[in-house]
Amino acid sequence: MTKYKILDILLKNKGKFISGEKLSEQLGVSRTAIWKGIQSLKEKGYNIEGINNKGYILLEENIISNIEIKKIIKCKEIGNRIIYFEKIDSTNTYLKKEYKKLEHGCVVISEEQIKGRTKNEKNFYSPKEKGIYMSILLKKDIFLDSIKLLTLTTFLSIIKGIEKTTGLLLETNWNGIYINDKKVAGVLVEHGQDDNYIIVGIGINVNNQNFPKELKDKVTSLRIEKSQEINRQFLICNILEEFENLICKKRYIFNREKNIEEYYKFFKILNKNIVLTNNQRKIVGKVLGVNENGGIILLKEDNKREIFYDGEIKRL
Questions:
Q1: What are the start-end ranges of the H helices in the chain?
Q2: What confidence category does residue 167 fall into, taking pLDDT thresholds of 50, 70 and 90?
Q3: How far apart are CA 83 and CA 93, in angstroms?
Q4: Less Cβ crowding at N or C end of the chain, within 10 Å?
Q5: How deeply is 46 buried, as exposed, middle or buried, from its count of CB atoms within 10 A (0-12, 13-18, 19+)?
Q6: H helices within 73-201, ranges in order?
Q7: Sign of the Cα pseudo-torsion (113, 247, 250, 292, in order)
Q8: Are 223 and 229 in contact (CB under 8 A)?
Q9: Bridge partners, residue 179, by sequence
């Protein structure tokens, strides 16, 4: 298509003006076709400026582009199709509605969510062009008894992707991803009771510099911790590549023991005393680890072990 050919030329000459006449000559199309192609690229989020007697220029901007991600990403399964939105209610909600029409590995990304959700149906703060809000559709080798392990393995892929992109060191407490005891990322895994699919939702505070009053003491962002803006496209690609490496090889959640062993490196409550709130129960115990399905193993005050697959954690 003409717009993608225009984009290729602008990318090769990023920061330089290219005249509409030159683009028209190179591509063998009319100036009107060039103008329409430029408008289409702008609608997709590309920061293109047009000036009379100079032409068009692609300016540097930290936007998310499904076109660019497709060029960068090295996955075989994940991201074969990427659906991009400027604004959406929730990327997870979209996949729950449309999963029958979509293939395994489809990724939905939005610049903004107006009804972003956490696992407790709380709102996930999703301001425009600041974070990463994406969901992955899985339709192969679904094991519903290992949903929690999928969540933990997704945590691991996010941690590894962030470290590769930024060098920042992160931790997890079984419910989220943290830097200096402040939450920076979360995962929401959902599945259909009668249908063979799973949706993995990922939310990350990337370039946020300000948070609402009720959140600012509890959360942080990669930009705040790194003291510089983070390229979200590279981060998305690194996370999706790690996700595929950890989850989508020979079977769903490839090499469980190895993944759990690596997960322990970032598991900040291992061998710590906690309170776990589960279905209105409050259980005090020492964290002994996680089992092969991702359940947390607690040594309770009565010296008995119990495994939990859900609940909120508070460290004593």
A1: 2-12, 20-27, 31-43, 66-72, 91-98, 147-166, 222-226, 232-247, 256-263
A2: very high
A3: 14
A4: N
A5: buried
A6: 91-98, 147-166
A7: negative
A8: yes
A9: 182
